[in-house]
Amino acid sequence: MIETKKTIIFAAVAVALLIIALIASPKKITPEAFSDQGQKFFPEFTNPNDATTLEVVDFDEATGSAHPFKVTFQDGKWIIPSHNNYPADAKDRLAKTAAGVIDIRKDEFRTNNVSDQEICGVVDPLDETAGLSGRGQRVTIKGKNDVVLADLIIGKPVEGKRGFRYVRVPGQNRIYAVKMDVDISTNFQDWINRDLLELSKDKIEKVVFKDYSINERTLSVDNRGEFILKRKGDRWVASRFAKGRKIDSTKMDNLLKAVVGLNIVDVRPKPAGLSANLKKDESQQKISQADVLSLQNKGFYFTRDGQLLSNEGELEIHTDEGVVYTLRFGEVVFGAGLEANESKTAKDKEAKAAENRYLFISAKFDPHYFKEPPKPKNTDYKKKADSLWTDIDKKNKAVGDKHDQWEKNVAKGKKISTDLNNRFADWYYIISSDSYNKIHLKPTSLIVKK
Fold first, then answer.
1. Using an 8 Å Cβ cutoff, are 264 and 429 in contact?
2. Do the Cβ atoms of 177 and 155 come closer than 8 Å?
3. Measured between alpha carbons, how far is 42 from 155 in angstroms, rounded to an integer?
4. In this predicted model, what pLDDT tens digit does every residue of 125-135 receive, in sequence order?
5. Reported pTM
6. How many whole angstroms separate alpha carbon 81 and alpha carbon 55?
7. Distance (Å, whole) CA 295 – CA 303
8. Which of 249, 211, 207 is nearest to 228 (CA)?
9. Where do the DSSP E strands lie in 143-296?
10. Residue-range domain boundaries for the chain
């Protein structure tokens, strides 16, 4: 009897231990959970050139807000809707990004527990009901007619597995550890033509610093003069020099590099009326009061005699094609992207690195750059065969060739300046503080002792 009781007790303890073990141990993952492991996320998406739109949404826990970035092909051109439809240079980059997404596979199934989404950082950044933490980056690629080709949420790096990230498809609970080699950039500068001025250093022949300030209340101008630098062969000379001084070639070269590689971090559209007027001949421009206010808010002012000036002076760049670029420096902008603003709170002032600057760029052709040569006294040579030309015909031909070349140079310079100005007329550019400091110099900083 005693032995029977012992047996029953031992059996009860064994059952209890088994139950405790089952409760305490991780939930067993069935083989079905691994059924799609190794498969592509989007098997029907095979051609990267089918991609016409990329949407990326990041989430800022500090502000509790989502930050969208979008680039798309619309009306025959690439644009960035999240940055005021600024023209994008996106075809090749988007195709490369799409190719990387096409190659993504479900390398390792990890969990399908909703509670694990926050830990893995794959909470949808667009989910209005979720908490602030654990939000991932949502990446959506679309094709023609906004057909979704790929849509996923990229989470935190996987501990102990270099190059792996947690990934989840929106609307599904399954979370995977995925090896990723995709450059998904939301940097505005990565998607635009960085050659803003379309200018090379060797084409710059003259640089003019215009030093002045504006009384914003009376619009009176305190003009402190101009400082002109001209290229003479392989060196630069100034319009006025103290004895025993010269232009530092290294500093001058750095200035030219900064001008050519102008770093824009964002843009703001000009009012349609202002843009249209700026594309016209200056004599035909009529600026409305609304346009004037738009300019003043950015740090640009029309004087009583109709000159457009800026509150931080300007820089003129003259090229060997007769094109003159004018860079006018306006108000400070704190930050970039959707958060950029002109506020000057104490917090903003402390963040000096975030101080960017409005830049107003225009281009024009200098009609006096190419001096018109004489025309041939007659053009009889055009009606004769070369073998019948007289000495006078040959001289007229040489004179005519020079005049024809002058006309070509003028036409080329006018076209370049018109094309540039039409592009610049639509935008207030925002340049980085670093770029601003490199080109907004005191001319005397370029002068050294011989």
1. yes
2. no
3. 18
4. 999 989 999 99
5. 0.80
6. 10
7. 12
8. 207
9. 148-157, 164-168, 175-179, 204-214, 221-232, 235-238, 245-247, 264-269
10. 31-191, 201-449
